[in-house]
């Protein structure tokens, strides 16, 4: 059966269109026209979202878990549950993100995640498009909740073991650029087709610039687990905010970053380089209580997840991140959509699979209202919420 999706506006990943008419066949975009230029097919199912804006489904490049499960469980039931939850919140794609753990445990998790990535997509679920290694090559001073005894110095040999275990599915890695050997590892990772994000770092401005020169292309949860800004030594944060070549991502939950800081981030990075992430853990979508991130316990109360006295990921979802961003900054909905669709897809080199609405691609769409709140999530042409 054909499905037609229509709304007040369409942001297709590049441009804004009025009164769109999107024809879907067999779960894929068949054509994009307008209500003025085309008639509704006689027997099509019509999904009409009055007053809403249609955009591409969200893509989360920093995501540890949700719905009671951690991606490092790396089992089919866990990732299926996660996928259903994410789809209901507008996210169709994500990078399964590890946390620093014993190396053998990480290698096992990477193998399991890679096996799930290789499977055909299931209807109505978000799917991992790759893996983000957050650790083990992080700064002790800015490690956050990553266990200090499990952090490792940058090593090409260790990196290659991780890549092999992941069957080549590692798409992004966070590295602290000031660590001895980091520049060599960054160059090696980039040569392997892996994007490098600079983060969990106490780097000076000079060390950060060296990491960028070696191939670093983004920054991990800007402001968090970063050397504080100083007017004589701007450090990694000052460099990230002022280097126009660098992407940077942000946890827009009002906990990790306040509205004032979100506005500063938006002014500094702008629509071409800003990205919204969740850094969500298993507690996302769950009641208060104790949950696990990798191998350690995290206590969740309200919007805060804490371990050993510091923030440990979030319970954020990207639909909430979008509405928060619109509220905090005054940005338009289409500007906000870019930060969790086109920009993360471009940064990771996955813009041929996510981040835009074009004929022939899977019909993964969201409808959002003028405040950026999710109205509907459509995965492969089916509304799932």
Describe the structure.
With 385 residues, this protein is α/β, with parallel strands linked by helices. The chain has two domains: 3-54 and 362-383, Roll (Urease, subunit C, domain 1); 58-348, Metal-dependent hydrolases (TIM Barrel). 28% of the residues lie in helices and 29% in strands. The protein has ten helices and 22 strands. It has helices at residues 76-88, 103-117, 156-165, 182-191, 205-214, 235-242, 259-273, 318-329, 333-338, 342-348, and strands at 3-11, 16-18, 20-25, 28-34, 45-56, 58-63, 65-66, 69-70, 91-98, 127-134, 170-175, 195-198, 218-219, 248-251, 274-277, 289-293, 296-301, 304-307, 310-311, 365-368, 374-379, 382-383. The strands form five sheets. Strands 1, 2, 3, 4, 5, 20, 21 and 22 form an eight-stranded mixed beta sheet that branches. The two termini are 20 Å apart.
What keyword list fits this structure?
single chain; 385 residues; alpha/beta; Urease, subunit C, domain 1; 2 domains; six-stranded parallel beta sheet; 22 strands; globular
Low-confidence parts, pLDDT < 50 over ≥5 residues?
none
CATH topology of the largest domain: TIM Barrel
Helix content: 25-40%
Categorize the overall geometry.
globular
Biggest pleated-sheet summary = 8 strands, mixed
CATH architecture of the largest domain: Alpha-Beta Barrel
Number of strands: 22
């Amino acid at each position: 059966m054909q499905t037609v999706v229509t709304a007040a506006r369409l942001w297709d990943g590049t441009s804004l269109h009025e009164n769109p008419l999107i024809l879907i066949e067999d779960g894929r975009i068949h054509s994009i026209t307008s209500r003025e230029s085309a008639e509704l097919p006689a027997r099509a199912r019509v999904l009409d979202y009055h007053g809403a804006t249609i955009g591409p489904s969200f893509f989360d490049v920093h995501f540890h878990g949700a719905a009671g499960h951690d991606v490092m469980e790396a089992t089919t039931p866990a990732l299926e549950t996660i996928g259903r939850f994410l789809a209901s919140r507008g996210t169709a794609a994500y990078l399964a993100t590890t946390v620093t753990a014993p190396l053998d445990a990480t290698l096992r998790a990477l193998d399991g995640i890679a096996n799930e990535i290789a499977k055909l997509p299931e209807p109505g679920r978000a799917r991992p498009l790759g893996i983000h290694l957050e650790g083990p090559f992080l700064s002790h001073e800015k490690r956050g909740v990553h266990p200090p005894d499990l952090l490792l110095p940058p090593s090409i040999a260790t990196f290659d073991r991780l890549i092999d275990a992941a069957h080549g599915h590692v798409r992004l890695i966070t590295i602290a650029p000031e660590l001895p050997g980091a520049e060599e590892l960054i160059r090696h990772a980039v040569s392997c087709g892996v994007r490098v994000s600079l983060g969990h770092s106490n780097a000076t401005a000079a060390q950060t610039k060296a990491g960028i020169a070696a191939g670093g292309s983004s920054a991990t949860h800007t402001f968090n687990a970063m050397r504080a800004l100083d007017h004589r030594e701007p450090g990694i944060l000052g460099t990230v905010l002022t280097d126009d070549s660098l992407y940077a991502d942000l946890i827009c939950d009002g906990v990790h970053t306040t509205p004032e800081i979100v506005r500063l981030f938006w002014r500094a990075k702008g629509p071409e380089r800003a990205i919204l992430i969740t850094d969500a853990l298993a507690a996302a979508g769950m009641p208060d209580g104790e949950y696990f991130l990798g191998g350690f316990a995290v206590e969740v109360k309200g919007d805060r997840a804490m371990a050993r006295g510091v923030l440990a990921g979030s319970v954020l979802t990207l639909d909430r991140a979008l509405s928060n961003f619109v509220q905090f900054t005054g940005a338009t909905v289409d500007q906000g959509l870019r930060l969790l669709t086109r920009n993360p897809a471009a940064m990771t080199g996955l813009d041929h699979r996510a981040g835009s609405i074009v004929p022939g691609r899977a019909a993964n769409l969201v409808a959002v209202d003028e405040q950026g709140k999710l109205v509907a999530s459509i995965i492969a042409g089916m509304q799932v919420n």
